[in-house]
Design brief:
- The chain contains eleven helices and seven strands.
- With 342 residues, the protein is α+β, with helices and mostly antiparallel strands.
- Strands 2-4-5-7-6 form a five-stranded mixed beta sheet, covered by helices on one side.
- Strand 6 and strand 7 form a beta hairpin.
- Helix 1 packs antiparallel against helix 6, helix 3 runs parallel beside helix 6 and helix 8 packs across helix 9.
- The protein starts with a helix and ends with a strand.
């Protein structure tokens, strides 16, 4: 996807640099400026090229999607002011014998130059905005298709592996009746495992789930891991949610929780895993912190695969409304993800 976006962007830039700008110069009054006022001509061309690339870098369509109207207004005002200042460029006066005619012809010429500048600036602005919109829509379409493909692969894997849910849960109920009374710890683990399976089957086709249910699912997963681990691994689970009914895509954080246990546990060395989930006024913050118990090279080669998939999913669902960062320092791996659910 990155290669496609990069290639498309370069083609659009090439079209502007070698087609649109040369045509504006050759077919407009700027062609005469090159020989009459070469310095002014260079300043104008440099300004128009700068306008295009700066506007493209700022990505006005994404600011519009994020409803950042103040920044859009500030950017627009800045470029309009810059173009206005360019129209005040001190060109030499038209040389006439009569002073009044000199002043009049100079003002007429300056007016024509100003109109030409505004016309070229408008064309560059329009081209930049239109191509940015098309590029952003194309990128969003590619991300959406990629996310859908990932979801289709996940569903296919689930369908290949799954047993009939009716048979599965009937079997689990039968096994649970055999476990009752043998051990309270075994009963609790069995119930948590059953809840995890139910959640997985129920949410596989759901677009969103309540964050309270997702948190309970993560909590059950962590509790089952605690049963498996010995005293060498310390596990801390912190959950603070002000609105359990708020919805988000299912299993958005499970990959990170799984990775923390996959790479951060040991049966022979002391280690610690800290997982926290916080939701305040629509701002979600999820963190994991774990010791690196596997070889660092193995971590760097295996871990990015799942993380890259999650990055693509976040970018498709919450474009411009999330942050995602990982750090590795002193044999500790930290992950932080924030989402503005509103």
């Amino acid at each position: 996807m990155k290669n496609i976006e990069y290639t498309t962007g370069r083609l659009i830039d090439l079209c502007f640099c070698v087609v649109l700008m040369p045509l504006m110069v050759l077919l407009g009054p700027a062609r005469a400026w090159a020989s009459t006022w070469p310095l002014f001509f260079i300043v104008v061309v440099a300004f128009l090229y700068a306008c295009y690339f700066v506007l493209k870098k700022l990505n006005l369509p994404k600011l519009l999607i994020n409803k950042d109207y103040r920044r859009i207004a500030a950017i627009t005002a800045s470029f309009i002011a810059a173009n206005y200042l360019l129209t005040l460029y001190p060109l030499p006066q038209v040389d006439f014998i009569t002073p009044s005619m000199t002043e009049y012809q100079t003002s007429v010429r300056d007016h024509e130059v100003a109109l030409s500048l505004w016309l070229m600036f408008s064309l560059v602005l329009a081209y930049s905005i239109v191509t940015s919109i098309v590029t952003e829509l194309y990128a969003q379409l590619i991300r959406t298709r990629e996310i859908q493909a990932q979801r289709d692969r996940a569903e296919l894997a689930m369908f290949k592996a799954q047993i009939s849910p009716h048979f599965l849960f009937n079997t689990l109920n039968t096994l649970y009746s055999l476990v009752i009374g043998t051990s309270q710890k075994a009963e609790d683990a069995f119930i948590k495992f059953t809840d995890i399976l139910k959640y997985t089957y129920v949410t596989i086709e759901s677009e969103t789930v309540a964050i309270g249910e997702e948190a309970a699912y993560i909590g059950n997963y962590i509790d089952l891991q605690r049963i498996r681990l010995n005293d060498r691994t310390k596990v801390v689970w912190q959950c603070d949610i002000d609105d359990p009914a708020r919805e988000l895509p299912p299993m958005l954080m499970l990959t990170f929780v799984e990775n923390a246990f996959k790479y951060g546990t040991s049966a022979t060395r002391d280690c610690e895993i800290i997982i926290s989930l916080k939701l305040t006024d629509g701002h979600l913050e999820f963190r994991t912190r774990n010791s690196i118990m596997k070889h660092a090279d193995q971590l760097r080669t295996e871990l990015p695969k799942g993380i890259d998939n999650c990055r693509a999913r976040l970018e498709g669902i919450y474009p411009g409304r999330h942050t995602f960062a990982t750090t590795e320092r002193d044999n500790i791996f930290d992950l932080c993800m924030t989402i503005e659910l509103d």
